Amino acid sequence: MKKYLFIFVLFFGILVANVYAQGDKVISMDKLKQRIHSFTLKNGMTFVVMERKTSPVVSFVTFVKVGSVDEKTGHTGIAHIFEHMAFKGTKDIGTKDYSKEKVLLKKLDEAYKKYIKCKDLEGNQGKCKIYKDEFEKILHKANSLVKHNEFSKIIERNGGEDLNAGTSTDYTMYYCSLPANKVELWFSLESDRLKNPVFREFYTEKEVIREERRMRVDTSYMGKLIEAFRSIAFSAHPYGHPTIGWDPDIIHTTISDVKEFYKKYYVPQNITIAIVGDIDLKEIKKMAETYFGDMKKRPDSPYVWTKEPKQAAKKEVLLYADAQPMYIRGYHVPGYGSKDYLALELLEGILSNGRSSRLYSHLVLEKKLALSISAFYGFPGERYPCLFGIYAIPNQGVGLDDLSRAIDAELEDILKNGVTKQEIERAYTLEEANLLREMESNLGMARELAYAQSIYGDYNRLFSDLEKLKFVSSKDIQHVIKKYFISSNMVEGRLLHNGKNKK
Amino acid sequence: MKRLIIMSMILSIMGCGFNGPKKYNELKFNKSISWPNYKIISFKSNNGINFFLIEDHELPIIKFNIYVKGGKYAVPKGKEGLGFILAQMLRMGGTKKYPGEKLDVFLEDRAVEYNIDFDFLNGEIDIDLLKKDFDTVMPVIIESLANPIFTKEKLNLAKMRLLTIIARRNDRQEEVGMREFKRIIYGKNSVLGRIPTKKSVENISLQDVRTFYQKLFVGPNILVGVVGDFDKNNIKQKLNNLFQVFKKGEEIKFNFPEVNPPLCKRYIIDKPGSNQAFIVLGHLGDYRLNPDFAPLQVMNMVLSGGFSGRLFENIRTKMGLAYSVYGHFGGERYYPGLFFVALKTKNSSVTRAIEAVLDELEKIKQYGAKEKEVEEAKEQFLNSLVFRYDSPKKVLERRLYYEIRDMDPDSFKKLINDIKGVTVKDVNRVAKKYLQPKDVDILVVGDKKDLGEELKKIGQFEDWKLEQ
Fold first, then answer.
1. Considering the domain A315-497 in this protein, what is its CATH number?
2. CB atoms B317 and A395 under 8 Å
3. In this predicted structure, what is the pLDDT of residue A17?
4. Cβ contact B307–A27 (<8 Å)
5. Which residues of B are less than 8 Å from A56 in CB distance?
6. Is B261 a member of any domain?
7. Is the pLDDT of residue A241 over 60?
8. In angstroms, what separates the C-alpha of A2 from chain B's closest C-alpha?
């Protein structure tokens, strides 16, 4: 499964649709918006639907506003574990006999708790071995009742594509595309797994997830650097947690933990569904009511009240490895909705969107310091105050200090001389074109709509933020650089080759 | 039009039976779904360029896929890396009016996307622009391609970039493993296995770039795909005018050496400190035009198709041995493809994982697939066909893919028909004939010290040397 982990949850970009005059043909924002509709069920679940009848296919995105930022110490990785478990089926799907299975799963969880506690406290001997055998015996019995991957197989057999899911700091999303005659199949399957998830094969799947961690973090230099960088950048706020979770936390997560997590966060008012493709709005409304209307409204999910204290001095992380160097830096900045939000967004574009952007044209093409470089606002999420990051890979023989100084010089130049009108317009034009290009993919568009509806509170922000973006000036950009891009507010990460190429 | 009628039938079916929630197995669907039939207009210009066009008026965008036959295949021996260098220099060169970075500004002010890449059999140039900019932008881009500005400075930058990539290419286990496994099978120095090295890159001169460019960028070697919101009435004229600047010349012919891979080899690439190993094992696949290609693809799906395949189900879901496990039986047009299975697993389960994979291969070879598996694999393929046609760009790219390989434009239709006719008997026959689990070569990328004892159970693993 090509599951995204969104190590870089790059912000989805402000989308723009203003008037495209094409001779007698005009694609206007209004015309585009006319094809998008949203409605909310009584239980609080929101749907965003867009008709696109170019091809008889439909894409579905289920977007849940829960991610690793909502996790507590000791329970990191649980949002991601749940995401994996959402493919394990329901009371009807994936089982040979649910009533028997239910009893066994309960026993299994108790046996695991007993075993793992014994192992932690007494060191895996004597009694613990008995507990382990007992656990494995039940595991074996429970597994014999499973129809493996039945949920996914049904979708694939019916021609499903893009079947996957992803967990980030801010959200979890599930998606797939189906031929247009299978819309109701999706409603049936998706509502079933959201209402009646069964956490079968839980303990085997955790081993899969631990392999995923080894792959994405332990054996990936970039993964290691990012994990260390995040955890020093945020000392109090849960944005510092690794989204995949710390290994011991994954090991200690139980089925009852995941059930509790489900009850707290998978409430209808936390779920947004986007559907884009060859559909009929009326039918979708009817099916939404029929299949999701009976999902019970539960209390609102807990929210994060911890605030990252103001950073006192520059922080730095150095990683030595038998690998080629990398460089990353970040500045603490406010998240979505703050008054500096748009200026930061535009700055991201001016710095690194396209070959003519400041960092690419100067550091990659002209000064030949970097193989690649990118700026990203909204790391590792944007629901809460976050980082504005810059990530670069140096060319052979270029020291990271030279690279870092060159980045400083670029920021100082903007602070001193501002940016040109042409640059602002270009950054804007590129965003504008992004939307048009996004429109070519049902899945891409569904993700954008779900994201904006859930994280921004309204899918219309995709369009209305543009209007505001037009009023961002060179002064606004200088203002955010002056305010946030200062040494004491900075976090730096360096991957160094075996101690060579020092800083 | 046809599509509309079918859609209304589907809706009416849903409409009348629509009372309450249904379980997935209670639902009935209209079986046949039709998709838009994109018509490809093709013609040839006087200088030998082949054009393929699909009209699509949904958005005011026009896209070009320009394929240049030859690709990395055509790079002279000892100059490996020349494909990358030429792609970079073409993109960085610009024109007299818009030299170098001025071209980027010109293009990005208009939100044009313009990328050049070199694949194995062809170079590919992708352009994506708004319709209204066609007449302003296309002449500039074509000039940058037809009269490229190659300078020493840009050559040095391109070389520096490639040397940086070479220095970094061994940092990721999977990348190292897949690349080197191919070289084990095809031979390190074969045209199918060679890679750029520090030496070969330093060897490349400005004259090499020019010569290579002149050989590749001639009419009969160029295929132009255009899709989007163009005006059918004058597009042919416009394209003829734009592309007439390319010279006539000689088409590159592919001629591949025979492949004689070693059997039963065991290699290891050391990655000290790694707690997970990347494993790839396999042998040669076969040719795309082999009449058994369709049953082989069905076998492929039974073995490694998405969530439903045996490898995913057994190695990942049941045993929990890997997050990432995948396999492929490849069929190439001009040379035998690669059959392989790859996965990543913690050091302590490397032997178990290798044995489990070999066991799966042995099982399907000896006992074949179940009727149900074959039917479901076919169902999956046929039901998802609509996605192969859901954008005109996909249809166009597939056509260009076949053109480059000198294949029947209807190859895909034929494959669909062939797959429809595949039976469990066919699958079992090809599994017996083409899978050789006893002969596989195995490559492990991981911590040699930590894996040492484990691996001994499977055989003697020799070191595989990496080139710089």
1. 3.30.830.10
2. no
3. 29
4. no
5. 3, 6-7, 33-35, 386
6. no
7. yes
8. 8
Task: Measure the CA–CA gap between A162 and B153, rounded to whole angstroms.
Answer: 43
How close B240 comes to chain A (CA, Å)?
A: 24
pLDDT digit string (tens) for A314-331? 999 999 999 999 999 999
Name which of A18, A55, A136 to mutate to probe chain B: the one with the most chain B Cβ atoms within 10 A of its Cβ.
A55
A contacts of B394 (beta carbons < 8 Å): none
CB contact under 8 A, A179 and B229: no
Which amino acid belongs to residue A327? Y
Nearest residue in chain B measured CA to CA from A213: B323
Closest Cβ–Cβ partner in B36, B59, B272 for A439: B59
Closest CA to A359 of A416, A419, A314, A315: A419
Smallest CA–CA distance, residue A428 to chain B, in Å, is: 9
What token pair was written down for A183? 């819309």
Range B145-162 average pLDDT: 97
Rounded average pLDDT over B10-27: 65
Residues B152 and B283 in one domain: no
Structural domain containing residue B452:
266-463
Closest-CA distance, B114 to chain A, in angstroms, reads 10
Ramachandran bin of A354, using left for φ above 0, alpha for ψ from -120 to 50, beta for the remaining angles: left
Q: What pLDDT was estimated at residue B17?
A: 46
Looking at domain A37-95+146-292, its CATH superfamily turns out to be Metalloenzyme, LuxS/M16 peptidase-like (3.30.830.10)
Mean pLDDT of chain B: 93
- Nearest by Cα to B154 from B60, B241, B84: B84
Q: Which tens digit of pLDDT belongs to each residue from B261-300?
A: 999 999 999 999 999 999 999 999 999 999 999 999 999 9
Provide the number of structural domains found in chain B: 3
B9, B51: one domain: no
Per-residue tokens: B77: 């021996």
Residue A28 has pLDDT above 70, yes or no: no
pLDDT-based confidence at residue B36 (cuts at 50, 70, 90): confident
Neighbours of B459 (CB within 10 A): 12
Asked whether the beta carbons of residue A188 and residue B27 sit closer than 8 angstroms, the reply is: yes
Quote the CA–CA distance of A469 and A467 in Å, as a whole number. 5
In a shared domain, residues B281 and B158: no
Provide the percentage of residues in chain A whose pLDDT is more than 90.
85
**CB contacts, 8 Å: A186 with chain B:** none
Q: In what order do the strands lie in the sheet with A46-51?
A: A36-40, A46-51, A271-277, A57-64, A172-179, A161-167
Instruction: Tell me the two tokens of residue B93.
Output: 């060169």
Q: Is there a single domain that holds both residue B190 and residue B334?
A: no
* Chain A residues in contact with B176 (beta carbon < 8 A): none
Same domain for B52 and B20: no
The reported pLDDT for the residue numbered B60 is 87
Verify that B357 and B340 share a domain, yes or no: yes
List every span in chain A annotated with CATH 3.30.830.10: 37-95+146-292, 315-497
Most A CBs within 10 Å, among B63, B162, B171, to test the A interface? B171
Chain A hits for B451, CB-CB cut-off 8 Å, are: none
Asked if B167 contacts A324 with a C-beta cutoff of 8 angstroms, the reply is yes
Mean pLDDT (chain A) is 91
Section A468-475 average pLDDT = 90
A215–B312: do the CB atoms touch at under 8 Å?
no
Contacts of A117 by beta carbon, 8 Å cutoff, 6+ apart: none
Give me the pLDDT at residue A499, please. 55
The answer as to whether B255 is a domain residue is: no
* Predicted confidence (pLDDT) per residue in B231-264, tens digit: 989 999 999 999 999 999 999 999 999 999 999 9
Same domain, B18 and B47: no
Residue B468 lies in a domain: no
Q: Look at residues B185, B210, B243 and tell me which one is the last residue of a structural domain.
A: B243
Among the candidates B209, B243, B277, a domain finishes at: B243
Contact A214 B387 (CB under 8 A): no
Give yes or no: residues B123 and B202 share one domain. yes
Question: What is the DSSP code string of A151-213?
Answer: HHHHHHHTT-EEEEEEE-SS-EEEEEEEEGGGHHHHHHHHHHHHHSB--TTHHHHHHHHHHHH
Taking contacts as CB-CB distances below 8 angstroms, the residues of chain A near B132 are 20-22
B321–A207 C-beta distance less than 8 A: yes
